[in-house]
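Worked example 2:
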Amino acid sequence: MQTIDQHATGPALAPGSRVSLRQMHLLQAPMGGTLVPGGATFRVFAPHAKALYVCGDFNNWVQDASCQMAPIGGGHWAVFIPALKDGDPYMYFVDGQGSSGYKRDPYARLLTIEPPFPKAHSVLRNPDAFPWHEAHFTPPPFNELVIYQLHVGSFDIKPGNPDGCFFDVIERVPHLASLGVNAIELLPVQEFPTTFSMGYNGTDLFSPETEYGEADEAKLKAYVDRTNAILAAAGQAPYAGADVLRHCDDQLRALIDVCHVHGIGVIFDAVYNHAGGGFDDHSIWFFDRQPTGNANDSLYFTDQGWAGGQVFAYWNADIRQFLVDNALSFYREYRIDGLRFDEVSVMDRFGGWATCQQLTSALRVEKPDAIQIAEYWPVNPWVVKDHAEGGAGFDATWGDRLREAVRGALGAAAGGASASVSMQAIADALADGSLGKRWRAVQAIENHDIVYAGRQPRVAMLADSIDPRSWYARSRSRVATGLLLTAPGIPMLFMGQELLEARPWSDTLASATEIAWAMLDSGDTVTTDFVRFVRELIALRRSRKALSGEGCAIVHVHDGNRVLAFERWVEGSDDAVMVVVSLNETAWQDYAIGFPAGGAWRLVFDSEAYEAGASSAVGREISADGPPLHGRPCSAHVAIPANGIVVYARN
């Protein structure tokens, strides 16, 4: 049961004020509807309202004195209503200066399915009742993260379903665990007003999207049975029947729980640069029902628009706290392991820098091992600087330099053997240390923005637009993914990338944008070979600390030969690897490369081994006993596959 705690905020009592014990409790009540012993407290920020009521089935939706909220100062209103329980629907009735009518609770933890959105009611929930399996899951150190970004609604759609749901993702968790990723990043899962959405137009920030839940009893039972089978295979106890997971919010918790059981952290995507559009009359738009006409009177927002919605009123301390409370609720009620903050650059542009600082400070106190990732364009090193320096305080930020360099080289290589390919651009991106710590850059060559339908092609299609399953497509895609997983920074894959998916993705579902899971499930050789390549390269990254360390230096780059070599190491350690990459269509048999140390170096990864019928040279040793070369004390002759990547290690 959620109870009143030290984090609750509220207006201070005026000097000399005398209040009853119940009034004191209301002053300390958390925001929104909160179950407490004997009933529920309700608290809301509505500074311009004339009167507020809490209505529901418990009072036949009547506005009377028994459910009228009392002003408690600072624009806040509160009331305690007895005998309410988990699952009870409710709404606020707001009597404002411009209109009167119902409003959903901005802090509502869940919305009803019936009536459906946008006429949905808020629902009282007890987030502490969920039967977690992993009580103390610890996410990996930030520099060791390997992230997999996905969109719940389109990740894996079962036949006969209009879109994907949380359970569909659960059923692919064993695949993700086998792949070796240790965190998934969900595109926004908060309630949005449209039929389909990427999630960046949310309107009810505390409530998960009800379309991502399963309400049909027969389907729910089947999903829970399959989820319990996954838990059993992991040596865990089952959920005690479908009724335990009948609510959408608990189905999201189950996804996080199953991920934790499999050693995978979960990162949410938070959108605090705007909300909406598509606001309905029951939404937070003009929540305290001032006269419409001036968006600056809408309470939560300003008159500035972004991405079809409205920018939050960062100048208002209560609205800033609303955003902080929202982020904290994900940590406390869903046990997530980090947040990715959408377009922090937009927040900054509209006066939200201090809001970012407030968010990162509060979240770091709450859960310091949960990563906070910013998206800021163009990349701004100040977002990862400490508050004391004036920075925003995020742990990491999305980068685009490696992505643009790798995609540029891949597209050029697709022009044929005589095309000019800039390996130097890749080298410059690898050497970029502008963020201070190299791990602070989240690197990707595909993401939800880039490979959305109608934008840029997926890697396989970029590698060979004629046949994205050809040798050219496969081998060049291995080079691109290999660079991502051996480069400094936190690597992030996009859903389907490990399957050599060539089709774009879209939230508007169509066969032309679905992920080809059937190819994996049927054992298609091209697909399974590429999955094996990604799996074993992730395993190499996670086992070789040099690949997640800070050390990185370019050893050799030659645009004409289309060859690049770089070393990775752990500071203060002899743990080092050499990565050699070629986008040449012809193999190099004895290519001289400078090495940082003499003696034996063992081949620990060879991309050529993932071609059907190819033999593997992994384990073969070379001796770096040649003369100094490329600014290194010694050298060795190495074999580099055509369109290939090889990794050598000292031990």
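Residues 525-543 form the longest helix (19 residues). The CA atoms of residues 237 and 363 lie 32 Å apart.
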